[in-house]
Amino acid sequence: MEAINESFASGNSILHQIDPRIKLIIIFLYALIIAVSSSILMLGQALFLSIVLLSIARLEFKKVLKRIILVNIFTGSVWLFIPFSYKGEAILHIGPLTASLEGIYYALTISLRANSIMLAVIALLATSKVTDLLQALNYFKFSKKMIYLAYFLYRYLFVLKKELTKLIRSAKARGLENKSCFKTYTGYCYLIAMLLIKSYDRSERVYQAMMARGFNNKIYIKQDFDLKASDLTFLVGFLVILLCFVLIDTRFLI
Prior knowledge:
This protein is 70% helix and 4% strand. It has a two-stranded antiparallel sheet. The longest helix has 31 residues. It is flat. It is found in: Cell membrane. This is Cobalt ECF transporter T component CbiQ. Keywords: Cell membrane, Membrane, Transmembrane, Transmembrane helix.
């Protein structure tokens, strides 16, 4: 059985050994606090903490960098527009465009938020197997339908990837070229349509096979986690850090 490549899930670092339930609690609170914060000082320290977590996880730098570049493609587009469209004190003029101090501040907060959360997700969640995270969600009484959907996506995404690869190979053998023209666009539309049809047929076959084996619309997920003292220590320590972040952010002070 093949599945999604979990390149970060194999390892023996401290974060690899933390209970997935603890990781979910931490990443939820961490992302929530970062998302609502507007303090550059607090967001800068959050980014530093995320980098520390990443170093503790001992992940391959090149693979992490590829994922961070994808996030920063979005944040780069933010820097192209927000500083010049956000009203405030003008501090920079580039031709007819004027960048405001408030716009630069806002773009900086978005960049810090995105990178802090992404690095934390890689360090905490990517160091656990997808099946373990789904079991942890089931432990917290998360919607079973969503868990089932995520599990089937995890299980069969590689199948769709193989089907798409075969379709592209067949199309190129029949003369499809990567050009900016109507014929190429039409060809790729046909590819997407065929992929949807094949996906539907595959889902029907999978469902019929499951029914033939006694499927009763339930998936039984084992909950065999063993909460250790080190897990609780990590949780308490992280909660203390988050409390410090809240105190730093003046928006939380009364």
